[in-house]
Write a structure and sequence with these properties.
The chain contains three helices and six strands; from the N terminus they run βαββαβαββ. It has about 160 residues and is of the alpha+beta class. The protein has a six-stranded mixed sheet. Strand 5 and strand 6 form a beta hairpin. The longest helix is centred in the last third of the chain and has 14 residues. It starts with 9 loop residues before the first strand and ends in a 16-residue tail after the last strand. The protein binds tetrahydrodeoxyuridine (THU). The site of tetrahydrodeoxyuridine has 15 residues, from helix 2.
Length: about 160
C-alpha cells in the first residue's frame, strides 16, 4: 500500500497586502456581484478574469427557474472570455460573493467542483499556471495554480 499526501499552498492576504493587479481584479469581481441574476438563491457571485494582454472580463451567476439550467459566475466568465478572446491566456481569476443579507461573505468564496474542472482545463489551455483569488471580508485566499484546487483531476490525457 502507498499513501500519497497531496498538499496545496494557499496564501492568505488582507486587502492591503494585495498587489495593485490583484486589488483591481477583486474590485471588478465585487462589482460584478451587483449584476448577478440570482432571484432563487439570492446568492450573488461575481468573477473577473485577467487575460494575458491586460484585458479584464467580468461575469456573474445566471440562474434559471429550471434550476440546473443556470450557470455559476466562474464558468459564465471563463466561457465568455474564451469565446471572445480564444487566443489569449487567462492569467488570473478572482471571485467574490454576497449572501442573501446583501453582505460580502466573510469566508473566501469557494468555487464548486464543476467550475474547478473548467478552471483546470482553462489552465491547461493556457499552458501556464492560472492564479485564483478567492475574496472574503476576513481575507483573500491566493492559489497560484487553478489545478491545485482539483487534485487527481480528469483531463484530456485520459481520452
Ligand atoms: N455559485 C457561483 O456562481 N459560484 C460559486 O463559486 C458557488 C456558487 C452560484 C450558483 C448559484 O447561482 C448560487 O451561487 C447558489 O449556489
Amino acid at each position: 500500500m502507498e499513501e500519497i499526501d497531496i498538499k496545496i499552498k494557499v496564501t492568505k492576504k488582507s486587502d492591503n497586502e494585495l498587489t495593485e493587479d490583484e486589488k483591481t481584479l477583486v474590485e471588478k469581481a465585487k462589482n460584478a456581484t451587483f449584476r448577478s441574476y440570482a432571484p432563487y438563491s439570492h446568492f450573488c457571485v461575481g468573477a473577473a478574469v485577467l487575460l494575458e494582454d491586460g484585458t479584464i472580463v467580468t461575469g456573474n451567476n445566471q440562474e434559471n427557474s429550471a434550476y440546473p439550467s443556470g450557470l455559476c459566475a466562474e464558468r459564465t466568465t471563463i466561457f465568455y472570455a474564451n469565446s471572445q478572446y480564444p487566443n489569449l491566456k487567462v492569467k488570473c481569476l478572482c471571485i467574490a460573493a454576497r449572501d442573501s443579507s446583501g453582505k460580502f461573505t466573510s469566508r473566501p468564496i469557494s468555487p464548486c467542483g464543476a467550475c474547478r474542472q473548467v478552471m483546470s482545463e482553462t489552465e491547461d489551455r493556457g499552458k501556464e499556471p492560472m492564479k485564483v483569488i478567492l475574496y472574503g471580508t476576513e481575507g483573500n485566499y491566493i492559489i497560484n495554480s487553478a489545478k491545485d484546487l482539483l487534485p487527481v483531476s480528469f483531463d484530456a490525457s485520459f481520452l
